[in-house]
Structure formats: structure tokens, C-alpha cells
Amino acid sequence: MVEKHTPLRLCAVFVASLMGAASITASANAEGGAWCQELWLGRNTVMDRAGHCFETPLGQAIFDNSNCTPGERPLTPLDQFIIAEYLEIEAQGRCDVDTSTTELDPIVDRWRQELTELWTVPIRADTEHGCGGYSGPVRELHSGMSNSTTVIGHLRPGDSFGFSHLQMPGGWEYIGVFRPDRDERSHGWVQGIEMTEDVCEWMAG
């Protein structure tokens, strides 16, 4: 018997697929919780790519310092913007990640893997929004905020997608995509995507 995915069922499946992110948001008030660890990881991924050397046990365990350069490292204007936004969100969330440990919460592993596929680091937000039953045109998902960066996925009719990161300059959005009938997931940057009744069978958040 083939199970039919009604809009309500699709909503439940989609929300379940994002439970890792949802539970991170739910733990936003935990100073060293998974949500704060996501913020720490995103911000320090930018620093690592700039050649920063980490001194804490956690920083050295996650980034290993193999290609670091001692001293102050120059940052691009975009990197400066991303880090400033992260620091502000971390301050608002009263985050205080324990950097004396050498491991992150397992729930952060998916975010860590996604970061390895991205040229531009997204800025994690504390809210999430979802669109189910997308009916718009096929959209390419890029590794960075430029159509010249690598295409790492697609948003297609019938997919569901979600926002859990801040919109960036130029209308760039980092989205997660889920196809319930195939249990497939993808992610990436897309420009000018909107969550409206015109292209969404249902919306959440």
C-alpha cells in the first residue's frame, strides 16, 4: 500500500526532517547548547578559512590549525559582516560554549558537514520558516552567494524548503530542501526566493 502525502502529512514529514534545526532553536536559551554551538562553529569556520590559529582545545580539535598563520589575519568585508552578525546573535542568546572540551553536540554534525560544501558561510538565525509543496520553477542551489559558484543542489516542484538563516545582501538566501517522497535532502544558496501562497501549498513558521 502506497502512503499518500496530504498537505498535513507533508507538513509533519517536513518538520520532522528539520528536527535537528528545530531542537537547536528550542535550546537557544542554553548557554552552551547545540544552537550556540552552531553559532560558534559558523563564526569560527570563517576565521579558520582566513588562516586564524586556534588556541582552545575545541578550536584545535575542530579546525586542527594545519593551515593557520600566527598573528592577526585580514578579513574580507563580507567575512567581517558575517562575524559581526554572529557575535551579535551569540550575545543576544547569552551563548557561552565550553571551549575546554574537544567535541560538539552530535546534533551539530549535519551543520558541520554542510559547511564543508559551502563557499559562503550562512548566518544561523533563531527562527525557522517552511514552504511545502513548492510549485515554482526549478532553482539552482549554489555553494556561495554568486551564480558563478558550484551548483550543489536544486529546488524542484514538489519539494519542501525551509529558511533558518539570515537573508544576506543582494537577496541571497541559504535554504534546506527536502523531497518527502524520496527522503532526499539538499541545501545551498539561492537568490530572490520567496515563500508565498503562489508557490507554496502550505507554509509554516
Can you tag this structure with a few keywords?
globular, 5-stranded antiparallel sheet, 205 residues
Given the C-alpha coordinates, what overall shape results? globular
- The overall pLDDT average reads 85
Number of helices: 6
Count the domains.
2
Relative strand content: 15-25%
For the secondary structure, the number of strands is 7
Low-confidence segments, given as residue ranges, are 1-29
Quaternary structure:
single chain
Question: Which secondary-structure class do the elements indicate?
Answer: alpha+beta
Radius of gyration, in angstroms, nearest whole number: 18 Å
What gap, in angstroms, lies between the N and C termini? 32 Å
Order of helices and strands: HHHHHHEEEEEEE
Q: Give the strand order of the largest sheet, numbering strands 1, 2, ... along the chain.
A: 6-5-4-1-7
What's the layout of helices and strands?
Layout: H1 7-17, H2 19-26, H3 34-49, H4 57-63, H5 77-92, H6 109-116, E1 124-132, E2 139-142, E3 151-155, E4 160-165, E5 172-179, E6 184-191, E7 202-204
Helix pairs in contact: 2-3, 3-5
Please tell me about this protein's structure.
With 205 residues, the chain is of the alpha+beta class. Helix content is 32%, strand content 21%. It has helices at residues 7-17, 19-26, 34-49, 57-63, 77-92, 109-116, and strands spanning 124-132, 139-142, 151-155, 160-165, 172-179, 184-191, 202-204. Strand 2 and strand 3 (151-155) form a beta hairpin. The longest helix is centred in the first third of the chain and has 16 residues, at 34-49. It starts with 6 loop residues before the first helix and ends with a strand.
